[in-house]
What does this fold into?
Amino acid sequence: MGDVEIRQVHYFVAVAEEGNFTRAAQRLAMTQPALSRAILALEKTVGTTLLLRTPKGVTLTAAGHAMLDEGRSLLAQAGNVTSRVRRAAEERASLTVSGPGCDAELLDGMVRSYNGTGPAHPARTAVGTIDDQLDRLRSGQADVALWRAPLRDHGLHGVVLRHEGVHVLMGTRHPLADRVSLRIADLAGEPLLGWLGPGPQVGDPGLWPDGLPGTPGPQVSDGLQMLAVVRLGQAVALAAQPSDGAGAPEGTVSIRLEDGPAVPLRLVWPEGRATTAVRRFVRHTVASFRTPEREALASERGGPASEPGSGLSGGRAGGASGAETVRSAAAAG
It folds into this structure.
């Protein structure tokens, strides 16, 4: 006599409760012959008949009634084990917050602030490229990530931390490099670098209803190539607002575009994966971005810390698209 498998018990309980192999097979999304073979294998394992087959269905033998009672108890215990293991794993796991290298200082500050509260799930920073944030979230390498530009249908939920102004990245020898700020009209005739990689972010056409500034310029697919083209003066590039304390890459300058769109900086996470740790991190970070000092700083740099009209209180914010749901700290919890 061998060991009974959980799978066999699951099948038997379905047949016993349905009283019919056909309905049980439909419930289990399997074929009737396969289910019948599985029950026969179970009866062989326990060494006795559990079901009496009749033209109208099945009836339980005395052993079958005992098997049904024990089987239901076993399945309930197995479910409890799974839940306890998952809860234990969640309690011990750290929270990974990801972002591109240009936001490394901002990420570090966010994580340090959160960990300073003594959370049960300490956060850690994972720095990648602009392109790989979505893959990191989907693969589980990251739980939360910084994101700019429309979410569309990426299967993500997000909350806006602040709005940022667009900057123009150009070489230090560019004729406009000594300007304190620029306007879209200043870029007329300027070759604008085209981004071929995933996640165009601030250059996303969805942020520019009247079209991108400048004229089409060289196209690139990675960050190093982009910097080389900009340093050589072959094109200018649209860039995110530098993170607090961060400067432009060597050989370039970053100049604010006064009349450019307000770009939302979001924390995003995959749908269905808003764990306790994710919700707590989001609540803490949203609160830290809504301090008076940060509100004033965000206003100076091109926008409020939260989307107009949203109040971070749930629902869809103005200008949001696709699967995005802008949520408040309370909604995230």
